[in-house]
Design brief:
heterodimer; A: 295 residues; mainly alpha; two-stranded antiparallel sheet; 11 helices; 73% helix; globular; B: 392 residues; alpha/beta; Rossmann fold; seven-stranded mixed beta sheet; 15 strands; 43% helix; 17% strand
Amino acid sequence: MLNFLTYLINGLSLGSIYAIIALGYTMVYGIAKMLNFAHGDVIMIGSYLIYTGMITWGMHPVPAILLAVVGCTILGITTEKIAYKPLRGAGSSLAVLITAIGVSYFLQNLSLLIFTANPKSFTSVVGWEGVSLFGGELKIQGVTIVTIIVSLLVLAVLQFFINRTKQGQAMIAVSEDKGAASLMGINVNRTISLTFAIGSGLAAIAGALLCSAYPNLTPYTGAMPGIKAFVAAVLGGIGSIPGAMIGGLLLGVIESLSKRYISTQLSDAIVFSILIIVLLIRPTGLLGKKIQEKV
Amino acid sequence: MKKKVICLLSAALLTVASLCGCGGSGGQGSASGGDVFKIGGIGPTTGGAAIYGSDVRDAIQIAVDEVNAAGGINGFKIEYRFEDDEHNAEKAVNAYNTLKDWGMQMLIGTVTSAPCIAVSELTHTDNMFQLTPSGTAVQCVQYDNAFRVCFSDPDQGAASADYIAGNADLGSKPVAIIYDSSTEYSTGIHDSFVAKAGDLGVNIVSDTSFTTDSNTDFSVQLQTSKDAGAELLFLPIYYQEASLILQQANAMGYAPVFFGVDGMDGILGVENFDTSLAEGVYLLTPFSATAEDELTKNFVSKFEEKTGHVPNQFGADAYDAVYAIKAVCEKQDIKPSMSISEICDAMKTGMTSISLDKVLTSPTTISWTAQGEPNKDPRAVIIENGVYVLAK
């Protein structure tokens, strides 16, 4: 039983990381209706900024994270302005998708140039050791607990922001109908920029937690967690903020338990089979909204 | 989605590459220049495996400069050019074709296994002599024109099992393995280790794996090893993953003896890594940068001056490769005016008849079998106070 609990907690720890990355994906998709495949790489850039702040300049973790949040927000707004905005009117969502993949490669190669391929070992931003239960039999690491709390906090703040503030309401309006929203006096471009700003700021926080839990930083660090988090967002229902949270946690737990009880080799195959089954039964994901098109 | 795009792009590149190959092959017979040896190198100098390729590139340059300064090979200077393959088979093929157009007569490369297998198909067709410093997969030297300086994967796995079984401290410990099931390198070592360990009576209690797509979270594999009571953890994997495993094992309070192979080499070079975690780690590596002999000291000091860091064993393999080529060329009286195919045939017979005693990657001598495998002694080092110390 204790054994099972250990694996469950390992899964929750992994899942909460997926969840916080998935929040960024789902937020941008929900409002701007585009898959920002460069999200994982913004996370990587954020992690490098924190690393530079903490290790190279000797900063305290908190200002280092703030620096990364500001840096990633600027990066997010800039890429949106340069790479995505000109294509928004192009009519094809495929153009923006391909551009996002391009941005992803651009960021990877840029950091390869600046930071080189030599992996860097990240110092955890969470100084706390964690708790030890049942006389040391069950250890929960500090970073696991902090990640779960931070992702819940982010979830709550995002929900409040979107449902209770004017800007948030503007976002919902833009996501439902851009044309109508602009007729109602909403600045569509500014709203989408704001979405990217928030999504990229979240990426910096996700980077801090990702690299604290798995302290190996290379220019490819963000790529695979990015893809897994995207899967988590789809599983939970892309566009739904609580869905991203649930999808991420579920993905982590399934991955961990299938590694332990079925096979380490097959765990990814199992995770993706579950995704396919869920999508066959509920095409919009677990919490996805079914929007009826009015003709 | 990303992978699909990569596949499409690589397919397109491959098509272009094969077309280039057709165009270039016309000039193959004519020896270019005739007064210098043109030696090419291929390996990853960007991308995830860049640390290996860039060390090989710089080590070959050092050896080539030494040979040229001492009068060259048979009185002819070496001209040397290195191409990046990003640890990608398609890009390695492109790099090979680029070098062939440049007039390459012998190839030192490629550095990593999968690209090496792809390129060996081409060198076999062209009958171009190929000496890989560090391509460990069995198929890297499947053709008679290809040789290697490093141990093959099965040799490394079997040598590790031999070492563990024969060691008084380690032999009786229950063993767990964590390996990367998505690379030929790791599975190759794993399979031969398991087979040999079975023969020698080493007790394997847990055998788990991961893939390149899930190479950050090892908590389940470590927990399984711990629950099975393993006291020695065999890690036939690269150091990036190994550094994470060391950190995660430490965080969960699990402290077995860690035993790695040549991929573990480089773990002390991870920036900001807490090297105290690597204290007591064993690794089977043919090269130790802290060895006291003149040859190693000379190589390490030149390498540090050039690059600012201590070379890993890949660099040492590459350095030995240049001197092996020199020795064979001198023995067989090979001249740059000969055609690529003539050079290759002379090298093939020459490789099996030499024995080098002054090398970096073997404590004794190194010679080659006709199958392309090196005959040399393995040595295990243990990390103490942040440096490699020869294990007893």
